[in-house]
Amino acid sequence: MTTTMPSSDNVLRTDYQKSVAAYWNAEKDPVNIRLGEVDGFFHHHYGIGDYDPSVLQGPEETREARIIEELHRLESAQAQVLIDHLGDIRPEDRIQDTGSGRGGTSFMANQRFGCYVDGVSISQQQVDFSNEQARDRGVDDKVRFHFRNMLDTGFETGSMRASWNNESTMYVDLYELFSEHARLLRYGGRYVTITGCYNDVTGGRSKAVSRIDEHYTCNVHPRSAYFKAMAANNLVPISVVDLTADTIPYWELRAQSSVATGVEDPFLTAYKEGSFHYLLIAADKV
Ligand SMILES: C[S@@+](CC[C@H](N)C(=O)[O-])C[C@H]1O[C@@H](n2cnc3c(N)ncnc32)[C@H](O)[C@@H]1O
């Protein structure tokens, strides 16, 4: 279904995109690697749900391993909730993981539906890592990862039954992004995102949200921008779920772990002061 093999120059079109790609090519944060090693599903997103407080108790020697496993359970639960919103996907359907990281959500979706999954990332390292995982899992006939720009994937118009962004919308212009999703989705196809967004009601980007942007070299969008850009691109919301209260326990546990990266305090501050939300939005293409 793909056309030409993209070169680095036409995938990474701006200095900003090159810097984002460089970040993810170099990224080896233990919070992403050690959690994935628990069961081989590697995620670069956050978790939801209450944590089991007993992981913080018990023998000191095994405490760290218990916390890592618990954080991984919460990030896997997040991906399951996203997949729950993709709708009725059949084995012959094709779906897109947009900004696919090391592929964890793609493999879980393929496991759930038996469908084709195309992951796209501007990090060649991530694409290579995930394609190797697909071969090791024996699903490379159905799950494939591509070095592509999510704003211009090159995939065929109307070819996707569903597509999603799991924490990857804050790197791009939402109008350009949703225009590409609307092009790729067939009529009635489902779009889902889980994302952090800042609160229009509290008025502008808070200091804590600015620290998150700075940490990841990204640009968190206001909540309103999602709905405006969806409406402008024939994407009609069907579910909006505020996951903010559900993600706070993940951050509280992570702040007490050896895999904390320093961004825990801005996230907890932003969520608790109300300047930032963790939202799931599902929309249908009409
Ligand atoms: C925070 S990670 C999320 C990864 C994955 N969705 C997950 O849940 O594990 C952000 C991802 O977006 C990708 N990304 C950022 N800008 C992109 C772009 N313009 N085109 C394609 N991928 C992009 C990065 O390479 C990275 O894989």
Automatic annotation (TrEMBL):
Cross-referenced InterPro entries: Erg6_SMT_methyltransf (IPR050447), GPPMT_Stmyces (IPR049645), Methyltransf_25 (IPR041698), SAM-dependent_MTases_sf (IPR029063)
Keyword Transferase among record annotations: yes
Keywords, in A-Z order: Methyltransferase, Transferase
Biological process annotations from GO: methylation
Pfam families: Methyltransf_25
Domain Methyltransferase, residue spans: 97-189
GO molecular function (one): methyltransferase activity
Protein name: Methyltransferase domain-containing protein
Species in which this protein is naturally found: Streptomonospora nanhaiensis
